[in-house]
Amino acid sequence: MKLSLLTTQLSFTTERLQIRLMQQDDFPLFNRLQSDKALMQYIGPILSPEELKAKFNTRIRPWDGEQDHWLTLKIITKNTNEFIGSVGFRIADIEAERAEIGYLLLQQYQGHGYMTEATRALVAFLFNQLEVAKIEAHCCADNNASWKVMEKLGMEREGFFKSHSVLNQQRHDDLAYGLLAPRLVEHSQ
User: Which PROSITE patterns does UniProt cross-reference here (predicted)?
Assistant: First the structure.
């Protein structure tokens, strides 16, 4: 993997979107996503202001070679320059060259293909530039929108975990998805 790329200012452009690393002055945007109860229903609890600021600070600090460090990128529409959500990733296992992706999209922008477009750009970066071998993603089984994005990316459902997580004091089934780098798929055929 070309991990040195993670120390640069990551940014991607798609047909409709600009995607770039969040910076210190993006906390209000991060707060908007993470404080939305409907959006966080299948993601995690609403954090206290102090906890949320601490989470944000870990997400924007430069990558220092640490496995499991999430990097968060904001998604901005090109035509209106509006913030609509975020995508992020972490190197889940350096030796296995495996990355995990995650994403959040404000409700009013859901259903327009924005997240699929943004995650496709992220997946292309992870495979073509960073050269990860595999991308994984996880979600609550009830989060239909999330696993549908994973499937649109070509990810395969690799696991179904019954009563695997607790969110907002309720037990949930979880799903695990994976996608191998094209170079590995071509090699295995």
Answer: GNAT
Which of 177, 23, 17, 2 lies closest to 102 in space, CA to CA? 177
The residue written with tokens 């944000």 in the block is: 56
Please give the residue that has the higher pLDDT: either 28 or 188. Answer: 28
**How far apart, in Å, are the Cα atoms of 27 and each of 21, 35, 53, 58?**
12, 12, 8, 12
Contacts of residue 15, Cβ cutoff 8 Å, sequence gap at least 6: 117
Q: What is the token pair recorded at 159?
A: 């696991």
- Residue 115: name the closest of 129, 101, 135 by CA: 101
The mean per-residue pLDDT over the stretch 66-88 comes to: 95
How far is the C-alpha of 159 from the C-alpha of 136, rounded, in Å? 11
Structure tokens at 51: 């906890």
77 in Cβ contact with 113 (< 8 Å) = no
User: If you average pLDDT over residues 70-78, what whole number do you get?
Assistant: 97
Q: Which residues contact 140 (CB under 8 A, 6 or more apart)?
A: 42, 43, 146, 165, 167, 172, 173, 174, 175
Pick the CATH number of 3-188 from 3.40.630.30, 3.90.950.10, 2.60.40.730, 1.20.1250.20: 3.40.630.30
The full set of domain ranges for the chain reads 3-188
**What value does the CA radius of gyration of the chain take, rounded to a whole number of Å?**
16
Separation in Å, CA 57 to CA 61, 75, 77, 132, 151: 6, 18, 24, 25, 31
Torsions phi, psi for 47 (to 5 deg): -85, 160
